[in-house]
Amino acid sequence: MSVLVVTGTGTGVGKTVVTAAIAALAVAARRRVAVMKVTQTGVGAGQPGDVEQVRRLVGFPITSRELARYPEPLAPATAARRAGLAPVTPATAVAATEELAAVHDLVLLEGTGGLLVPLDGGGATLADVAAALAAPLLVVVAAGLGTLNHTALTAEALRTRRLSCAGIVIGAWPAEPDLAARCNVADLPAVTGLPLLGALPEGAGRLTPAEFLPAARQALESGVQRWVGGG
Q1: Other Cβ atoms closer than 10 A to 201
Q2: CA proximity to 110, closest of 89, 93, 92, 134
Q3: What's the pLDDT score for residue 44?
Q4: Residues 188, 152, 54, CA angle at the centre, nearest 5°?
């Protein structure tokens, strides 16, 4: 099965927009795509979450699934406990992913926060889900100062757990990058040993579908060709 797990070095780095970009490229290549959010936090009932943003940016019908939603913007395990709701376990996430993978060409599994954010009371994380699926991860990172340390720590955690990593993507490349961002283009691969697969422009999440697909192609298509197909 073709599954790619999208994680990040933290919150707000652009995981959802990167997930949407890969989905849009795969749909354009006529692949059957499913996007699954393991847990959505900080969003109330009836409010649009990350999967809705992915659908809006792709602009074409795709399968989307949200396994759980918790109203407070906290780590999933904490948010579930405070809401009195059941947490998502790795077994639940794996079963849902395998169900989607059976009828789709590509399943994109988007995590919440970073790689080691607790999912349940037992300390399980997205890393455990990826390990159970034997699926590679894509790490979305920030562009500027501080990202080298955060990204290196994530890369070290992946190596320690012997997890496969497809590479890293800068989730929001500024229109006017500062010195740190410009240097990080070379430094990120150097300190992590992972390939930099591309960088989406800042504000890409506000584009229309007609604008978003060309932006995704320019930013990512060569780097994620293995996943999107069509080449």
Answers
A1: 17
A2: 93
A3: 85
A4: 75
Q: Tell me, what's the pLDDT at 168?
A: 97
Which pTM was predicted? 0.95
Q: What is the extent of the structural domain holding 192?
A: 3-228
Calpha distance 178→131 (Å, rounded): 37
Residue pair 113/11 in contact (Cβ under 8 Å)? The answer is yes
CB burial of 155-170 (b: ≥16 within 10 Å; e: otherwise) equals beebeeeebebbbbbb
Alpha carbons within 13 angstroms on the beta-carbon side of residue 12 total 3
pLDDT bracket for residue 36 (50, 70, 90): very high
Q: Which of 209, 214, 170 is nearest to 189 (CA)?
A: 170
Q: How many whole angstroms separate alpha carbon 53 and alpha carbon 55?
A: 5
Which CATH number belongs to the domain containing residue 70 in this structure? 3.40.50.300
Please say whether the beta carbons of 119 and 87 come within 8 A: yes
Collect all residues with Cβ–Cβ distance below 8 Å to 158 and sequence separation of at least 6: 115, 127, 137, 139, 165
E strands present in 134-203: 137-141, 165-173, 196-201
- Residues known to be catalytic: 37
Q: How many domains is the chain partitioned into structurally?
A: 1
Q: Which residues contact 47 (CB under 8 A, 6 or more apart)?
A: none
Find the range with the poorest average confidence among 23-32, 46-55, 161-170, 216-225.
216-225
Q: Which of 131, 209, 123 is nearest to 164 (CA)?
A: 131
